[in-house]
Amino acid sequence: MEEREIINRVTKSPLITFDLEEYYHKGERVVYDIAQNLFQGLILKEKDFRDFVKTNDWSQYQGMNVAIICSEDAIVPTWAYMLLTTKLEPYANLVVMGQLDVLEYALFEKTLSEIDLAQFQDKPVVIKGCGKLPVPESAYVEITRLLRPIAKTIMYGEPCSTVPLYKRPKAS
Prior knowledge:
The chain is built from five helices and seven strands. By secondary structure, it is α/β, with parallel strands linked by helices. The radius of gyration is 23 Å and the shape is elongated.
């Protein structure tokens, strides 16, 4: 019986694998809840809040990714969130208004917007699925949005088993 050479077609494929885990920011994620600054859990007293902001050690947020929220049903003026941001921004990697999912989206959006997409021009791309890190679905949507105008095809999954998502129409 004749032996045939086994050829790994996946390694010989022109497919480019895009792994979102490579763009996962390793920095710590924390929530700053402005509710801790409310008087009786209801209102923000401007003088007290400004004193707190002025004297607090904001360097404790060095390199962190901070999501600012208010967990209480209180009216917090917009300037209060802005004031917090002025103190957090010099230390934190990223500051956003919203829950941790908003922070995660913002981290990926920032990182993905910095990619040189020219390397994917007219190429078949597979966006890797399944991994060890908690990559949000919003990151998959964002990279698909960025790749669609330039990639020849976009697939999802693993090179050996993909789900086709987009194929550029042939020019007529």
